[in-house]
Amino acid sequence: MNELRVAIARHAVMRAPGRLVCIGVGSCVVITIFDEAAQCGALAHVLLPEEAPGMAAGHPARFATTAVPLLVGALRARGAEGPYVAKLAGGAGLFADVLTSKGRVGERNVLATRAALAAAGIPVVAEDVGGGAGRSVVFDVETGKVAVRKASGDTSVL
């Protein structure tokens, strides 16, 4: 089975069989979008909620607001026309509010991701977000299942 690791601020799209993997997800949010009929999935490892003025562009997967349209375009380019469903993981509160200008990056990432998916008409059918633990994520693009393993050792399947 093909397995591809997706780094922070990057994305990938894959047809079955295969898995897309993110290791060490903290305040970032992993967005998975799945087309069951096409057995095709896309994943983005989102770092921030939105692009700030003056911030260098170039990696649309870095931001929740630009990652969702990027993933939809990547799926359509592979012939996956939907309907799509999304699952989310991450958004942990790992950093003190004093380390960021707006505070609570993880929570803001989750909210921005939900809003971007809603704007695209893609339902979020499951999520494992928030809390204080980092996660690793494995997205099976054949089944659409997302395995989430927390740093505490707890594992769930979305």
Summary of the model, kept short:
By secondary structure, the protein is an alpha+beta fold.
Number of discrete domains: 1
CATH topology name, in short, is 60s Ribosomal Protein L30, Chain: A
Helix content: 10-25%
Q: Helix and strand succession? A: EEEEEHEHEEEE
Average of pLDDT: 91
CATH architecture: 2-Layer Sandwich
Q: Which stretches of 5+ consecutive residues score pLDDT under 50?
A: none
Largest sheet: 5 strands, mixed
How many individual helices?
2
CATH class: Alpha Beta
Percent of sequence in beta strands: 35-45%
- Tell me the number of strands: 10
Rg (CA only): 14 Å
Q: Which shape, going by the Cα principal axes?
A: globular
The span between the termini is: 20 Å
Helix- and strand-based class?
alpha+beta
Strand order of the largest sheet: 1-3-8-9-10
Features:
158 residues; alpha+beta; 60s Ribosomal Protein L30, Chain: A; five-stranded mixed beta sheet; 2 helices; 10 strands; 36% strand
Question: How would you sum up this structure, described in words?
Answer:
With 158 residues, this protein is of the alpha+beta class. It has a single domain (2-157), classed as 60s Ribosomal Protein L30, Chain: A (2-Layer Sandwich), CATH 3.30.1330. Helix content is 18%, strand content 36%. The protein is globular. The mean pLDDT is 91.
